[in-house]
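U., I forgot to send this yesterday:
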Amino acid sequence: MIIFPCAKINLGLNVISRRNDGLHDIETVFLPIPLTDALEIKCMDEQFPVEDACNLTISGISVFGNGEDNLVVKAYHLLAKDFELPRIYAYLHKRIPVQAGMGGGSSDAAYMIRLLNERFSLNMKQKEMEAYAGRLGADCAFFIASEPAFASGTGNILEPFNGLSEHLKGYYLTIVKPDIAVSTREAYSFITPKRPAKCCKDIVAKPVETWREELTNDFEAPIFSNYPAIAAIKEQLYSLGASFALMSGSGSAVFALFKERPVHIEQTFGHYYTAVMQL
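Result:
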């Protein structure tokens, strides 16, 4: 059985406060996008001579993290504590760039929960799957439904953002991801939490052309200061005619929305990862 975990972008991201548990409360709008990995599982014969209950193979771009540290494997073992699961082979083909702020690892984990639930008739409803996913990462729960949402708390409190897909329908989304890795922990270390003048969900409800002056990502200023190449990508995207551009999450991917299909993206950004898709 196969499933296709999707990526996301953040339409605005504001770090509101630091919590007593050391985590941070945020406000953001999650938008699922048509860029996916592929995840397949098959039952393993009991006589197959491996110790792993979930034997994971990864292929595709930026391949790393085979083994028990991978969130796909962690998702399997999390459910295996509460459900009788057979030993399985898992095959993950990566197309979503890693350490990009696009939620690829979180999505893979959430879709593993969805896949196990369906394949082995665990009969979990959405909220139960979201609860399991939330134990694996702050944004994992979003990928259970993979529908546009306003997220608060640590990113785990989700409110459906109805009409957003229609609002953006027809725009061309461009992703540019440089060969720069920014850890989430590093990104948060630069932030002084504060509440924005206007909530991102109110800004996103307005026409895209108005977003540039108001829609912000609190990680941009410190990340751009430390990694000027990421800042340069955003400026180049605007110079190519983008209606709006922003770094996604804690980076390092930058996305842009264009009214018309942009040209010369691959040539402009050289060896960087690039993708163009219509919403």
